[in-house]
Design a protein that fits this description.
157 residues; mainly alpha; 7 helices; Zf-HC2 domain-containing protein; transmembrane helix; transmembrane; membrane
Length: 157
């Protein structure tokens, strides 16, 4: 495993390396404790060169205000562009077609013929004729008597 020198870590901390090399350094830090110690030393050394902030709250507020101002001035607001649907895909077109078909069917009398047909279906002529119990017994009796007569005729011949 290759270890990096403290000077190389200082360049990393100062952001003097290109992106690909920085990624290699970052990946190396995950697996090497010796280089992690050198990196922390480089950060501490570089920290001593940074200015001292006297009032941290005011500094934080000013940074946050400048970030908000930057966002307001530089963010490109995406233009909300409505996709125009074709007239055939609009609800108005569909309702118009439905209304036109309803009026057409009403004027041609289709609905009236349907109601007449429905009345005929519901009328008693379509219902099966129900025979009374007495009528059924009489019919069976006559059928039995007819069968007896035909037997007698066949035997008597």
């Amino acid at each position: 495993m290759k270890h990096y020198s403290k000077e190389e870590w200082l360049k990393y901390v100062k952001n003097e390396l290109n992106k690909d090399v920085r990624e290699g350094f970052e990946n190396h830090l995950y697996g090497c404790d010796q280089c992690l110690d050198l990196y922390l030393q480089a950060v501490a050394e570089e920290e001593s060169h940074l200015p001292i902030i006297l009032n941290e709250a005011d500094f934080t507020d000013s940074i946050m205000a400048s970030i908000a101002e930057y966002k307001n001035n530089h963010i490109e607001r995406p233009q909300v562009r409505k996709k125009s649907k074709s007239f055939y895909q609009s609800a108005l077109f569909h309702y118009s077609i439905a209304a036109a078909m309803t009026i057409l069917l009403m004027t041609t009398g289709v609905f009236q013929s349907i109601t007449k047909y429905a009345e005929n279906v519901q009328s008693p002529s379509f219902k099966e004729k129900e025979t009374s119990m007495t009528e059924g017994i009489v019919n069976k009796t006559f059928a039995w008597m007819d069968s007896l007569e035909t037997k007698n005729k066949k035997e008597g011949k």
